[in-house]
Design a protein that fits this description.
This protein is an alpha/beta fold. 40% of the residues lie in helices and 17% in strands. The strands form 2 sheets. A 12-stranded mixed beta sheet has the order 8-1-10-19-18-17-16-15-14-11-12-13, with helices on both faces. A 7-stranded parallel beta sheet has the order 4-3-2-5-6-7-9, with helices on both faces. Helix 11 packs parallel to helix 12. The longest helix is centred in the C-terminal third of the chain and has 20 residues. It is elongated and about 85 Å long. 57% of the residues are buried.
Length: 483
């Protein structure tokens, strides 16, 4: 599992470790790792031009000492000193190795630009001259390497307020920072490379975690010798309407591909006909009235995709949420509970899967504010509503109570097309029915859904049904990872 930490957590670990080491040891470890990554990007160091953007903090010192190492290998290294003060020993080391102090004009001629402007403790918008230097670095032809976190990205939250460095590679020291895994910050980080400087045993419980394929392999249920269709999990799906029949088809498809032993679909006449035509494996109940009395026993429900938001849909939602099994709520189901939050007063677990607009309605927030601070708002919603939240979008965030939030790293922009969220609902619902908690079902569902999107797209546009079809291949991929 990839774990990430806030700036305060990192600084606390660094303080404990530094007390046990000679002065300057951590900076030299960081500089060595940074210089190695820079050399790898340059390919041939001798004769290349490197520009260091040097701020007042320790990141500036890391950049200066890394620049010293590159200069000794034959690179021309120019330092643009942007801060009110400069790490004196680092600057002296750079100058002794043949480096030079230069003006900002050197940025445009660089093969490689090292962003050491601000460190992990910075927050808010960059001030001048840092903002201007960040923009010049983004416009330059040279590859940009950020030290620890791109300047302008809040290391603890991923917030970006104003100008920020857009790095090709971010070299982060000791541990991943939360802001490198959560958008919008993650979009500025590029390829994140971790340098081990010895913090491991001093780090607390993580702020955020990202599952790996091996983690998902460990979590997803597998049928045993004694399994039958009931023991493998029975999922109920209340979705679709006369207007949105496809949502029912896609949610049921995601559920069937997700490993549920049986899927019971309940809906009105038009979606019932489509589900029967597409998925003869599903057990279908035609609802003449909004009642689930004759659907049969299930271990979990998916509620909402394409359901509609009229009085009939509201009553059906109330019946589903009155059961004593976990319920995943998506799409129109979220609109219904946003109008009537009393529907969420239940003892059994609830997993909601909103995008930013739906979450904005649920917690009475501004959509743009949610996009700017996804992690903060997912956590707020989980606490305020008493549910598990899977916030969909450029970074999928899973939040529940006081547990570390989870972020998903397998998504692809090709998934931004109609119906893929319905497939995710069915897939995660199937995992709920098989016995996973809301926290694990959301995390594993997001991982497999993103991976299925990659496999289905293969670099080209996809349709939502393609994602459902690719789910078994995604599961095979994670279960073949090995020890």
């Amino acid at each position: 599992m990839r774990t990430a930490y806030t700036a305060d957590q990192i600084r606390g670990a660094e303080h404990e470790l530094m007390a046990r080491l000679p002065e300057g040891t951590l900076m030299q470890r960081a500089a060595a790792g940074l210089a190695a990554v820079c050399a790898d990007l340059l390919g041939r160091v001798y004769g290349t031009r490197v520009v260091l953007l040097v701020g007042s903090g320790d990141n500036g010192g890391d950049a200066l000492y890394a620049g010293e190492r590159l200069a000794r290998r034959g690179a021309r290294v120019d330092a643009v000193l942007a801060g009110s003060k400069t790490h004196e020993a680092g600057l002296r080391a750079l100058l002794d190795a043949g480096g030079r102090v230069a003006e900002a004009a050197a940025i445009g001629r660089a093969d490689l630009i090292v962003d050491g402007l601000v460190g992990i403790g910075a927050s808010g918008a960059l001030r001048e001259p840092y903002a201007r230097l960040a923009q010049e670095a983004n416009a330059a032809r040279g590859a940009v390497v950020a030290v620890d976190v791109p300047s302008g990205v809040d290391a603890s939250t991923g917030r970006v307020e104003g100008a920020a460095v857009r790095a090709r590679v971010t070299v982060t020291m000791g541990a991943y920072k939360t802001g490198l895994l959560v958008d919008p910050g993650a979009a500025f980080a590029g390829d994140v490379r971790l340098i081990d400087i010895g913090l491991g045993e001093y780090l607390p419980d993580p702020d955020v975690a990202a599952l790996t394929g091996r983690d998902v392999d460990d979590l997803i249920p597998r049928p045993g010798e004694e399994s039958d269709k009931y023991r493998r999990g029975v999922l109920g799906v209340a979705a679709g309407s006369d207007l949105f029949t496809g949502a029912a088809v896609l949610a049921v498809g995601g559920a069937l591909r997700g490993g549920a032993g049986m899927v019971r679909y309940a809906g009105r006449e038009a979606p019932v006909a489509q589900v029967r035509a597409h998925w003869p494996e599903a057990v279908v109940t035609l609802l003449d009235e909004p009642s689930i009395a004759h659907v049969g026993r299930v271990q979990a429900w998916v509620l909402g995709p394409g359901l509609g938001t009229d009085a009939w849909a509201h009553e059906l939602a109330a019946r589903v949420l009155a059961t004593d099994v976990p319920v995943l709520i998506d799409a129109d189901g979220l609109t219904l509970v946003a109008r009537d939050r009393s529907l969420l007063r239940r003892a059994a677990p609830v997993l909601i899967t909103p995008h930013a607009g739906e979450l904005a309605r649920l917690i009475r927030a501004d959509r743009a504010a949610i996009e700017a601070a996804r992690l903060e708002h997912a956590r707020r919603a989980a606490a305020e509503l008493g549910v598990t939240v899977l916030l969909k979008g450029s970074t999928t965030v899973v939040a529940e109570d006081e547990r570390p939030a989870r972020v998903n790293v397998t998504g692809t922009p090709w998934l931004a097309t109609g119906g893929t969220g319905d497939v995710l609902s069915g897939l995660a619902g199937a995992l709920l029915a098989q016995g996973l908690s809301c926290y694990d079902a959301a995390s594993c569902g997001a991982y497999l859904h993103g991976l299925a999107g990659h496999l289905a797209a293969d670099g080209a546009p996809l349709a939502a049904a393609d994602v459902a079809t690719a789910v078994p291949a995604a599961i095979r991929t994670v279960t073949s990872v090995g020890p």
